[in-house]
Design a protein that fits this description.
heterodimer, A: 200 residues, mainly alpha, 9 helices, 0% strand, elongated, disordered N terminus, B: 216 residues, alpha+beta, four-stranded antiparallel sheet, 25% helix, 24% strand, RNA_pol_sigma70_r2 (chain A), Sigma-70 family RNA polymerase sigma factor (chain A)
Amino acid sequence: MNRWIPGRRERPGPDAETPPEPRTPLRLVEGETYTGWEAIYLDNVHRIYRLMFSKVGNRPDAEDLTAEVFLSALRPLRTSASVGEVRAYLLATARSVLAAHWRRTLGQEITAIDIERVAADFGRPPEAGRSAERVAGILAALPDRYRRVLELRFLRSYTIREAARELGVSVGNAKVLQHRALRLAAEVVREDHSDDRMGR
Amino acid sequence: MKGLRRYVEDLLKGRRPRSFPVEEADADALRLAIELRAARPGSDAPREEFVADLHRRLAEPDNVARAPMPVGRRLVLGGALAGVGAVAGVTIDRAITGGETPPSDGTMTPDSGRWHPVVAAADLPDGAVHSFDAGSTTGFVTRDGGRLRAVSGVCTHQGCRLHVEGGARLRCPCHQALFALNGAVLHHRLPAPIPALPRLAVREAGGVVQVYVSSA
């Protein structure tokens, strides 16, 4: 289950000096333009929402932030800009909208949008594969019970009561287990990221 | 610890999480909780009602003013290609305006700053002026001979907000002071001289013109 680690390390680091290979699919569409703001919206709203959801993990915030991106970005955009340009602008807007969200709510940037990394995926059809694989990698590094409680609660929508029953422990124990599992998993990620910062 | 638990519980229940005082260790756990929650199968697609509703909001005339201004095709394409290059990972072309203006407060240098996106690079052809409002700072960016400039949009006399006049000057509505796009004072009818407009660091990154403003 460790496939995800070598996969990430093959990519150039965030501070790589040399320009990366032209891996961005934006090149494929550089000559195309949108026919109007509605086309811009319909083509990108799902992408922006998905991106925001991956950064905040809840629907109300993801919806608000997505709306903010389009409400502030569509006005200065001219549709004669290329598809790549429009997307770059939406991404830049999304990045500052997300940063402002964290400043406003928790006072520090919990997650951030790495424009270069995201841009490489932005033009592609969505694939659940990579983040699912990453998460599977993190979970695989945990002791069995920790892994299971996180799986049940985060990935399979179990309530704490259902998860406790499934694990054969009391609700109180399940809560403690979940909390410790989250802390431990965060540590696993932190250690792994001394050379590769997550989501940054 | 309680705050973190409640935040995570909100994430799991799909509610809007409430803020709490975050410690460093919390931040890592939060980041992970968000990632795990976002990996739940099928949960990252927007609701159709949301997509339709936002579509309607955007269609309201106040929200999207569609008045395309003519732009030379050549310039648009040039900008587009440059933008794509930048997105591919070759950042950052910083251009701070030169020193031909009279002494002023110089370049704005906030203690803690961030790059604020102003306009798609393709939408700022040579000779164009674009106003921006970055919260703490308002101003104007221009492209002149391929070079980007950004200046504060606030009159150095009494703080009135400037507007573009004739596409190439900045006029103060309060006492009619007139500034050049590089911030220099062109004329005024005030008893004492006024400084030039502070300049801002400006760059083009990822196909977007950005200015450096306070992050507070």
